[in-house]
TrEMBL record:
Gene Ontology CC terms, in alphabetical order: cytoplasm
The protein's name in its UniProt record: DNA oxidative demethylase AlkB
A single BP term in Gene Ontology: methylation
Cofactor note: Binds 1 Fe(2+) ion per subunit.
Molecular function via GO: broad specificity oxidative DNA demethylase activity; ferrous iron binding; methyltransferase activity; oxidative RNA demethylase activity
Keyword Ribonucleoprotein (UniProt): no
Cofactor(s) annotated in UniProt: Fe(2+)
Domain Fe2OG dioxygenase: start-end pairs: 113-212
InterPro entries named in the record: Alkb, AlkB-like, AlkB-like_sf, Oxoglu/Fe-dep_dioxygenase_dom
Swiss-Prot/TrEMBL keywords: Dioxygenase, Iron, Metal-binding, Methyltransferase, Oxidoreductase, Transferase
Length: 212
């Protein structure tokens, strides 16, 4: 049974008021999740989004699910059609959706209904600056974030940009869940260091699951 793939017996480690680290939660299901991601990006190709300010993001992105997060000179938003293919985003693979719901539940968010999964692929040097996830309409829904492949330093800030962030070393198969009063905390990732991973080669894959 699919659910047996989730190592849900690891106790979540709290790193914020309602923010949790689940080491290795998706390690066993990683091969099937990564295969599902490959299928998605064959249908909706990876691309560098531009920020509203006109800067190209260093990470390569795509989406699966009913809605996809996009960014261009008109702003950040969710939309049902991929602006590149002008088609709906690929359906969210069940192996991804089920793992995210299970992770959220383990952290006390039993009503998580993800309808958007942002796929981020980091190559050497790619990073994400401190930001808040605030393009969603219902902040009572948490954020669930999967890491695969190369390790990276995740930055966990406060509710203001000026708070010095804490560092969390994320490795293959780790999951972060944050919601409730931690939902709008600033976060980001440091530049990816060069390396090799058997399942992802020279990149890190992040999946960020949210309800739009
Ligand atoms: O890559 C990560 O771990 C974080 C990604 C993220 O915060 C985002 O896409 O909003
Ligand atoms: Mn984010």
């Amino acid at each position: 049974m699919q659910d047996d793939l989730f190592t849900g017996n690891n106790q979540p480690q709290q790193f914020g008021a309602t923010a949790y680290y689940l080491p290795g939660f998706v390690e066993q299901s990683a091969p099937s999740i990564i295969e599902a991601v490959r299928s998605c990006v064959r249908q909706a190709p990876l691309r560098h989004f531009s920020t509203p300010g006109g800067r190209k993001m260093s990470v390569l992105s795509s989406n699966c699910g009913e809605y996809g997060w996009v960014s261009d000179n008109k702003g950040y938003r969710y939309q049902q059609l991929d602006p590149v293919t002008e088609r709906p985003w690929p359906e969210m693979p069940q192996v991804i959706k089920k793992a995210a719901i299970a992770a959220a539940k383990d952290c006390g968010f039993s009503q998580f209904e993800p309808d958007a999964c942002l796929i981020n692929v980091y190559s050497t040097g790619a990073a994400m600056g401190l930001h808040q996830d605030k393009d969603e309409s219902d902040f009572s829904q948490p954020i669930v974030s999967f890491s695969f492949g190369l390790p990276v330093t995740f930055l966990w800030g406060g509710s203001r940009r000026t708070t010095k962030p804490a560092k969390i070393e994320l490795k293959h198969g780790d999951v972060l869940v944050w919601g409730g009063e931690s939902r709008l905390h600033f976060h980001g990732v440091k530049a990816l260091a060069e390396g090799h991973h058997t399942l992802t080669s020279n990149v890190r894959i992040n999946l960020t699951l949210r309800k739009r």
